Known about the structure:
The protein is α+β, with helices and mostly antiparallel strands. The chain is about 55% helix and about 20% strand.
Amino acid sequence: MKTRIVPKTEFRDRIKDELAGLGDDTLVVTERGRPVAVAVSVERWNELQENLEELEDSVAVLEHRASKKRGRPAESVLSEIEAEEGRVRRPARKKG
């Protein structure tokens, strides 16, 4: 993988060839020496997106492990929900 830098005017003139030869490379398009766009192949883009999702998942797991909050047993949570449901239920209204 390498990065190629191409001025916008040159890119415009040979866009077909530049995109056809992209492969795993990254193409940076510049205007007056400043980067204005980046082109990567669809395969590379998908790979980058998958890597990003995996990294986000890993960070979430590590943040959870580092937090002081710990889980509770399911039985405890379920009994609280059932107790709350009993307090929230209201008698059915009579019609008429």
